[in-house]
């Protein structure tokens, strides 16, 4: 069907001669409502107009977005088609712990924008933050960024497993299997498999690379096969860094970049003016195959920034303060859009860090519209011993090889290495739970004495037991504060009044004595962070390690399943698929499986870290002859459904009320009353009843045919006096 909005399709001319491409011009709609739309909503509008086919996206859907001030408070649904998908090698969906219940901030009957500012009324016209930007850029300056779907290798493996299974199913049904391909660009970045097996050593990086490639050889061969077998798919080899990046469109059509990523860190891209957020694997697959995602048209909360940071206040301080304010205000399920004169004082990496925390404050996006800071960044990055107590394990796992280049040039890497912070690999290591084993005497001391071990991380996720199963207390801090705690050897310290160590003459050294001024930091960054560093790294982004390049690949576009594989397993739901779906089935005699409290995270439901030696997954692997040292992680085995079902609720810190105080991944089987692992007690979950759901978990349940039900406001299992045995 012809797009009904071709009348507003314009050409962006090049100065002199030629053209950059065509784009849908929103001002050409001549609709005054556009001026009242936040920038983040305008991106949804442009996407709906561009994809309007009167089937998946209709003119009525476009009008809902245009009438956002009236329709958003009514929670109307709209279809959204991202331009790209990002897959990774780790988590199955959003890792955030925030609930997706009702925002306490609510909505004004006359507007869905709620600025956070003392004494201000809710907006009934164009929000102030749009005025700050609208006059700064001509329409031609807002060069559209390209959209695609990105993924990491933990979620990437099961996604490609599904695609491979679909091809086999298509072949069995007599169809053309080569037609099974992603319909939007997909980037799969292998950045979640590196583990800190070796640390505090000059050889740590090379040793960890070799161990990683050997440990994951089968998975990596499968991923490399997928990159060749499927159209529209790019696989970035391991050890080249994290997944967050921007691709610019050079084709004929220009449009704003929009992205779905199978990781909560996807929202980091909002700091670059790119609209995108984390989704579950099921939603990602649907987007890959060209389906529009149905979403509630969100409200937008404006956050005004003013002034600048004082000396000694780090970007992490700002990030955590913003997250705290937004949690207190209530922004669940909304977009947050930043504006104000203070925007010019916030660097793009700091913006990305604020946006990266959106799962923690409950928003779908923490959006920074494009301005001069964005454009400057794009230019700059080249677009066009013995065990003692306390015992400390240190590691440095940058997200990009660029970090190594500027740390070396500035002379900082040498000093970090002297403190034990050797580079262990490039990617999501500690944050995803790949921090490696503790020395056995240390691990035994923690377990035997019930010690509350502590981890300090310059990342964004601090769930209990996430960094390591034995670290119950996990704190987020800026990189220099992480180093300071390592120097002090404890987190039980007041940096203002207590020294972090003693100097050569046994003189007390305080943190303030070694803390640089903001001017010093700015000068070091200016002289050592150079565009050429980004260019040299990203020009070789698809060139892998020699071991990766030598991996043997099957030549067939149909995958040949190995029945003995413990990593890659043909999806059981696609093995015997027929042209007719089986239809609904009744639910009879259903009982509680588990009764859980608040703040249940992805890590509790489906852990991505190490496989405990006494777990059902460990038992399964050992029965197949896998040694304990080769268990790898749950995330690395997400291509095998047999491991994943055994990993459900396998977190060793799970608190199930049916166990009356006992901590661990067990439950009481009904009606026998026997205490079993959750896996052994499960007969198939048909519904989840909760006070509220995190957005991605709720959509994953729906995608798997499990109904997410909510208690009435003010009610829960306790107020209704439910025991779990009804």
UniProtKB/TrEMBL annotation:
The keyword Translocase does not apply. Gene3D superfamilies: 6.10.190.10, Aconitase, domain 3, Aconitase, domain 4. Residues 89-125 are annotated as: Disordered. GO terms for biological process: oxoacid metabolic process. Residues 148-386 form the Aconitase/3-isopropylmalate dehydratase large subunit alpha/beta/alpha domain. Residues 682-712 form the Aconitase A/isopropylmalate dehydratase small subunit swivel domain. One of its GO terms (molecular function) is iron-sulfur cluster binding. Keywords: Iron, Iron-sulfur, Metal-binding. Belongs to the aconitase/IPM isomerase family. This is Aconitate hydratase.
